[in-house]
Each structure stands twice: as structure tokens, then as C-alpha cells.
Amino acid sequence: MRKWFAGRCASLRGDLVAWVDGGLSARQARRVQAHLDHCPGCAAVAESLRSHTTLLQSRLRAHLAAEPTDVDRLWHQFERRRRATAPRATPRPSTLWLWRPALAFAVASALLWLGSTAFDEPAAVLISVGVKAPPPKLTQHPDLFKDYAIIQDLDVLEHFDTAGADAPDSAMTPAADQG
Amino acid sequence: MQRPALLGALVAFLLAAPAFASPLRLAQGWREYSPRERYNALQNYRHYQALPNERRENVERNYQKWQAMPEQERERMRQNFQRYQQLPPEQRSRLRQRYQAPPKH
After folding, report:
1. Is residue A53 part of a domain?
2. Whether residue A77 is found in the same domain as residue A106
3. pLDDT band per the 50, 70, 90 thresholds, residue B20
4. Nearest-5° angle of CA A90, CA A95, CA A98?
5. What is the pLDDT of residues A60-119, one digit of tens each?
6. What was the pLDDT predicted at A91?
7. Which of A4, A19, A89, B73, CA to CA, is 20 to 30 A from B44?
8. A110 shares a domain with A51
9. What is the ipTM of this complex?
10. CB-CB: which of B27, B39, B76 is closest to A124?
11. A111, A121, A148: best to mutate for the B interface, most B CBs within 10 A
12. Are A115 and A107 in contact (CB under 8 A)?
């Protein structure tokens, strides 16, 4: 928990300067504020940043009031120097890739669940899709169990003569059954 | 040195192949079924497993007859079955009692 909180502090402190300057979006600002409400360490850093920024702003205003300065030129100089001296920022590692396997796992689970509800039970699903081996008799005589309904009643079916009969009752009722 | 050994293995395989051909073909039949057909076959297998011995023997006898039937005769049985399915249950039951072979003791 402490480790997680420390990681949270590290990721939020990068936003503190922008937060003090009012440069964050409303959502980001709320996130920072919520963290500061519970983290005295970060709150102290934020307070320190705020006081330094206020001090710098007041001194700058006093300096500008004392003697006229070309602020735009000064700003460009500052930007150039900052770009030349600032270390190249390393992009924060994206955690998006973590979502892909999680999403794939969720989809696979949902499909398996749907399959198992459609087929009644997981073992039958696994055998049906070829993941699990079927009982040996099924592979030895697959046609027996494919045409099982017919084979089971073959004695009866052999006694019917369907030639030229249309109506099920007359066609399926053998002469022997009527007498 | 390796060539005669390979030739020997090839000849042995060709001689032994017919012995394996039949089970392979049967297993292939199961693999050729769709998942739905496999599922239905599995349910039928479970039904068969739950039958009493004499009913199971009857199914085995019918299966032997079914295997011996020419395709035309099987087709006639399939058509008969379609119509048989349309009969009311009590009529089917009556027909079963009349025509199903009595168990052999």
C-alpha cells in the first residue's frame, strides 16, 4: 500500500508545478487536489512550490515596474536556453498494453461461458471443440452415435414402407400395427 | 549406411500402414464432425451408456444391421425416421413394443 502511494506521489509531483500555475485541466486538478488532501508530504511540496512561485512573481513584477523590459524578447531567450539545457524528457511508459491481454482474457472467458451455457456443461464443450479427448467408443464408432436415433429404432423403421405414401399417419402405420 | 535403414523403415511403414488405416479413418470421421454434431453424438453416447444391458445389446445388433445396409436402404430408413418422428408418442411407443427385438437370454 505504501509502495503504491509512493508511486502515486511520484506521478503526481510532476503535475504540481502546473497545478500551482493553474495549467491543469479541471479533472487533473481535482485528481491532484484529492491526493494533496490525503498526502501531507505532497501537500508540503505543493505549498513550498506555491510560496516560491508567488515570491518569484512578486519580484518579477517589481523588477518590471522599476525598469521597462521587452518581455517577449526575454521570454524567447529564456525558451531558447531552456531548450538547449533541459534534458530530453523520457516518455512515461504506457500502460495501455496491459489492457490488451486483459481484454482478450475477458472476451475468451465470455465466449467460453456463452458456449458452456449453450451446450449445458463445460466438459461437453471441450470435447465438442476438440480440446478434450472423447471416450474411445465415440471415436471407434462415430457413426453409431451420429445416427443413434435411427439405429435405436431401426427394428421399427424397417417395417415401414414409405413408397407412395404422403400422409404421415398412413405412411408410418404399418399394416401389422392396425390389426 | 543410413540409406538401407531408411529404406527398411519405409518398407516396414508401408507393410504396417493397413493395420493402422482403419482406426485412423474412424478417428478422422469423428474429427470431421462439426462441434454441434460432436456434442449431439456425445449426448447420444451418454444415453447409450445409461441403457440397461439388453437394450444396449439391441442397439449393437441394430448398428451391425445399419452398417451392412446399402446406402439406398439407409436413405429409406432416414425417410421413415422423419415420418416416425411426426407420430404421437403413444403410437411410437406401441410400435416399439411391437417391433423391437426381444432381449436374448
Report:
1. yes
2. no
3. very low
4. 145
5. 777 777 777 777 887 888 888 888 887 766 666 667 777 888 888 888 887 776 666 665
6. 65
7. B73
8. no
9. 0.71
10. B39
11. A148
12. no
Alpha-carbon distance values, A119 to A127, A135, B44 (Å): 11, 18, 14
Record: contact A119-B39, CB cut-off 8 A = yes
Q: Are residues A80 and A122 in the same domain?
A: no
Burial of B94: CB neighbours in 10 Å, binned 0-12, 13-18, 19+: middle
- One-letter amino acid at B54 equals E
pLDDT reading at B30 higher than 80: yes
Percent of chain A with pLDDT over 90: 6
In a domain, A91, yes or no: no
Higher pLDDT, B49 or B104: B49
Q: How far is A120 from chain B (nearest CA, A)?
A: 10
Residue A9 falls inside a structural domain: yes
Taking contacts as CB-CB distances below 8 angstroms, the residues of chain A near B95 are 156, 159, 174, 177
C-alpha cell at A159: 417395417
DSSP A163: T
**A81 and A135 co-located in one domain:** no
The predicted structure's pLDDT at residue A178: 39
| Domains held by chain A: number | 2
Contacts of A63 (CB under 8 A, 6+ apart): A69
Q: Is residue A41 located within the same domain as residue A67?
A: yes
**One domain for residues A64 and A122:** no
Give the domain extent around A60.
Answer: 2-85
Residues A16, A45, single domain; the answer is: yes
Residue with cell 525598469: A67
* DSSP single-letter state for residue A120: S
Return d(Cα B45, Cα A134) in angstroms, integer: 10
Residue of chain A nearest B51, judged by CA positions: A152
